[in-house]
Design goal:
This protein has 258 residues and is of the alpha/beta class. It has 2 domains: 1-94 and 171-258, 3-Layer(aba) Sandwich (Rossmann fold), CATH 3.40.50.300; 104-169. It contains 9 helices and 10 strands. The strands form 2 sheets. The protein has a 6-stranded mixed β-sheet with strand order 6-7-8-3-9-10, with helices on both faces.
Amino acid sequence: MSTDAYPATGGPVAGGGEPMIEAIGLSKFYGDFAACRDVTFAINKGEVAAFLGPNGAGKSTTMKLLTGYLAPSTGNAKIAGYSMNQERLLGAERLGYLPENGPLYPDMSPRSLLTFFGNARGITGREMQERLDAVINTCHLEAVIGKPIGKLSKGYRQRVGMAQALLHNPDVLILDEPTAGLDPNQIREVRRMIRELGETKTILLSTHILQEVEAMCNRVVFINEGRLVFDGTPADLAAQDHDLDKRFLELTGRTELT
C-alpha cells in the first residue's frame, strides 16, 4: 500500500477543504508492542481538532510521528502537503510544535530563549524583532520577558513554550497536553489563547480532558490502545446521549465511572 494515499478503509477528509495535517496509515512498533497502529485522519485548514484519548492511548507517539520527531514503522505523515518522511524540513517550516514538557533552558530568559530559537530558524534583523514583539504580545509575556525561565510559574513556562512554537508564524500548530499541570486560571488563559489562534491557524491538540473539547474544538479525533476509534465533530461524539463522559467510557471499553 502506498503511504502517499489513503488506504481503502480510511475515512474521507471531513468536510472537504485543504488538509493541513495528515496521518496516513501511521504505525509505530517497539518490538511486539504497537504504540499506534494504522492511524489515518486529516485535519483541514482552519480546524481546531482535539486528539482525544485516555493516558497511554498513543496520542504523544502519534503526534511525534506527525511532526517528524519520530520516524514511523509504516505509513506517512504530511504537514501542509509536505511528506514528513521525505520533506521534513519543508514541513517543519509550516509547523509549530509544543511537546508536553517541552525543552526550556531554565537559566535563559524568555527573550534570550526566543532569540536563540529564532536564530536557529534563520530569523534575523527587523523580522526577528517583529516576531518577538508579536509572540510576546500574543502569549502575554511582557511581565516576565527578562526573568530566568527557571523562576517562572508552570503557566508562564507554558506560555514561553507556546511563544517558541509561534515564533516563525507557522500555519499549523500541534500541541501536546497544552493545559497539563496548570491551575484553573492558567487553563482559562491557555484556552483563550488557543481559541484566538484557531481563527488563523490549523490546530491539533492532544488531551484526555473532555472540557477541552467543548471549550476549544470543532473536531474530535479519538484514539484508544493505539487505534483510531472515532473521527467527527464534538456533537457527533455525544449525539446518542448528549454526554461526552459516557461516550469517552464507551470508546475506551468501559461502561461506568469508578
